[in-house]
Amino acid sequence: MLHLRLIVPADLADRVQDCLAASVGVTHVVVLPGAARRPPGDLVLCDVAREAADELLAELKACGLADRGAIVADQVDLSVSRSADQAEAAAPGAGADALVWEEVTEATHEESSLSVTFLAFLAVATMLAACGAMLDSAILVVGAMVVGPEFGPLAGICVALVQRRPSLAWRSLQALLVGFAVATVLTVGFAQLMDALGLFSRELFEAKRPNTSFIWNPDWVSLVVALLAGIAGVLSLTSAKSGALVGVAISVTTVPAAANAALALGYRDLHQAAGSAGQLGLNLVGIVLAGSATLLAQQGAWSLARRRQHRPSPTS
């Protein structure tokens, strides 16, 4: 369930009240006339079932509330209320299956932006993965996968493709391209420093590394894993189950592939550099394809559920 906090200008009060009254998933409505000061208006509080949230938010935006007032939504972790249970039961579908586009778009907006924090996380993750690849340590590689923030821009590209939002697509693509380029360059320098300190060596890099050799040897299984990760990642995003994203991060080898490419470039091993770049590209493309297809499937299924809910019952 979502908790909505609305700032409603006086001339929109009746329209907003009608929207809330018409939605079967709305409950716990509280109206505080004239309580808002910036922007001025009424303060309206309510809870809405996730199943009904997307349609309600679209109607509130159509009223002009997003332009002249405010719409704030928070996740409700606990609600002990028979009224809330009845609202969720009356709304179509299941809450875990609900697709709330505003929530998905907002979740990908910050995560898909190129920022100093994004670059720092990606660079640190790539350096950790370089240590793991050099030492043939699967534990370090897995740790680097968890730290890597690259799924945010990948999810942003998926949302942009489905919603046809070129600005979001460009911002996400820019974050990926610049992020991996900067992280790779920094990791090359990091590897050279480690080599100068005697902690890395060409002998270690060229030795057999059975635990991490998959990083630069892409195959059909790598594509299958990327596709499955894309599906799981988008499902965790749309269902607000952030814990599943950890599993997605561990399952794909984007950051380790970039790290091994940086090591290979530093030691001028074009074979491993090309293999690592192929693994990186395969994972990125697979996640985007599967993620976009998952969003399209969810959108279609949710639209069908809505049409069934609004279809008039046949008269006997």
TrEMBL record:
The species this protein belongs to is: Peterkaempfera bronchialis
**Which domain of life does the UniProt lineage start with?**
Bacteria
Please list the coiled coil stretches. Answer: none
UniProt protein name: DUF389 domain-containing protein
Q: Which UniProt keywords apply?
A: Membrane, Transmembrane, Transmembrane helix
Q: Does the keyword Nucleus apply?
A: no
Q: Which Pfam families does the annotation name?
A: DUF389
Q: Spell out where the chain crosses the membrane.
A: 116-135, 141-163, 175-200, 220-237, 244-265, 277-297
Report the PANTHER family cross-referenced here: AT15442P-RELATED (PTHR20992)
